[in-house]
Here is the input.
Amino acid sequence: MYGSGDGQRFGKLTSGPAAPWCGRYKPMKLIYSPHAELEFQYTVEPHTAARKVTIDVIRNWSSITDLVAFAESRHGYENRDGFFGITYGSDLDDFDRENGISIPNDYVEANAGYGACGGETHQLPESEYLELLRQFLVLKNRTELATRVETLLTKDV
Here is the structure.
């Protein structure tokens, strides 16, 4: 069920020159296409498999407010209907660790089962996940929630 990215392909993550967290990751832009098929309404440029899975996880969660609360507490979540979820290293238990499952510090694991257990799983920097979540909230006109996520991005800058 668990796969992993090597972390190297994601590099360090920036959302633009004006962003206070600039330099923490490569620039990315979340694009909403309301007339596209549901699965393709949200795309990320530049595209990576990890970003696609992550935005699918975000858009498939039933409560936007919950997503922000989970991010603030650095706690993962999973939707058992479609097996969509985010896992932090602190969410792993002894059984996971004994079986070789690990998530590096400052990374999250995004899992999109697409209706079946064992779908796609990728690890990506937590800051990249938070930036995708922030942009998703902006596109949904949830500026108060987006500001809360932005605070998480600037916390350690």
